[in-house]
Specification:
This protein is an alpha+beta fold and 64 residues long. Helices cover 33% and strands 25% of the residues. The protein has one domain.
Length: 64
């Protein structure tokens, strides 16, 4: 969509990945600092989700 930028991260607890998280932001509000913060928060969120859904904790995530 024009005027929107999106960020996406595959969740890597399955191979191939079947799930992902994303964030969309209006281009008019996106600064370099804002982009860096979004990417950092999304990486941390991905790591937390992957840790909670890892095979050692019961296999596939319960939300499927």
């Amino acid at each position: 969509m024009p005027g929107i930028v999106g960020f996406g991260f595959a969740l890597r607890y399955d191979v191939p990945a079947q799930d992902a998280i994303s964030c969309s932001v209006p281009v008019a509000r996106l600064t370099a600092e804002h982009e860096a913060r979004i990417v950092a928060v999304m990486r941390e969120t991905r790591l937390r989700i992957e840790a909670a859904a890892s095979p050692g904790r019961g296999g596939a995530p319960h939300w499927r």
